[in-house]
Inverse folding.
């Protein structure tokens, strides 16, 4: 059975011009998580929504998390298990531990868990992301046991990056779907 792809946006919910929204609208087999409040994230509520969504899907799934949602996945994996998770694409992790890189509104997600993830994962980072340094993203990948991919200078890999369907990201995602 081909795994479902679960799109997990970060702070603000990945607007219409975000690659996650393009993927949700244009690619098959995508499910998008909906949080109660995208702009005032509460870790416990976001964790419950993620867990409930995974229970509802109840089949093989690959997580596609962006920014704050990468921290969400790390927190979820530190306290939950689900054998249906076949992998995770973790794009532009927001450094919730760093007030220099991220807003106070997401500090409640700190500290970011650093234990190895129990499923294959790929961390994708940009050289000029204002929400995380490349070195810190590489460190996260190493701690989580993730493959690390540097895609050059693409900002926060969000709407402002103008990636639309982000074909490069789809090719990286394929590495997880082929396992």
């Amino acid at each position: 059975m081909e795994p479902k792809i679960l799109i997990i946006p970060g702070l603000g919910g990945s607007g219409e011009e975000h690659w996650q929204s393009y993927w949700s609208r244009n690619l098959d087999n995508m499910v998008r998580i909906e949080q109660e409040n995208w702009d005032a994230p509460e870790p416990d509520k976001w964790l419950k929504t993620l867990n409930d969504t995974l229970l509802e899907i109840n089949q093989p799934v690959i997580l596609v998390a962006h920014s704050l949602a990468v921290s969400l996945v790390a927190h979820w994996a530190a306290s939950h298990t689900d054998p249906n998770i076949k992998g995770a694409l973790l794009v532009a992790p927001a450094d919730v531990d760093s007030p220099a890189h991220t807003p106070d509104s997401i500090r409640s997600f700190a500290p970011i868990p650093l234990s190895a993830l129990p499923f294959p994962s790929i961390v994708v980072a940009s050289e000029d992301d204002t929400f995380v340094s490349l070195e810190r993203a590489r460190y996260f990948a190493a701690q989580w046991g993730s493959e690390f991919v540097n895609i050059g200078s693409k900002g926060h890999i969000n709407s402002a990056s103008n990636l639309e369907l982000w074909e490069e990201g789809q090719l990286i995602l394929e590495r997880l779907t082929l396992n």
Summary: The mean pLDDT is 96.
